[in-house]
């Protein structure tokens, strides 16, 4: 059995990133385009990622303190059907708290998820089937 509490720290590959949408004013967008045109950044995305990383670095102490205070798992947390079935056999339930990526295998049924996952807090991304996400909707905080 895979240890369900095992942390898999890894840097996501481009195919494992999440897409976000932002709205910018025309002046901000123009300034971004100017910096790209002048060669400071390779493209808009490069500038935006750099700006986000700089802000995360600036607030790194707050992030670390909050992770510790809220007992969040940092990185990748994966749950297989076998992991959840083992918990079900011992009548245990999970309180999942992840900052990063939480994944629940595609072969996990909504019923098994409901029987073994008491609460779910994911700051980042949750990869699970639509049926499992729907079943857990009332437990996602």
TrEMBL record:
CDD domains with a match to the protein in the record: RHH_NikR_HicB-like
One Pfam family cited in the UniProt record for this chain: RHH_8
Gene Ontology BP annotations: regulation of DNA-templated transcription
InterPro entries given in the database record: Arc_rbn_hlx_hlx, RHH_8, Ribbon_hlx_hlx
Name by which UniProt lists this protein: Putative transcriptional regulator, CopG/Arc/MetJ family
Species assigned in the record: Candidatus Methylobacter favarea
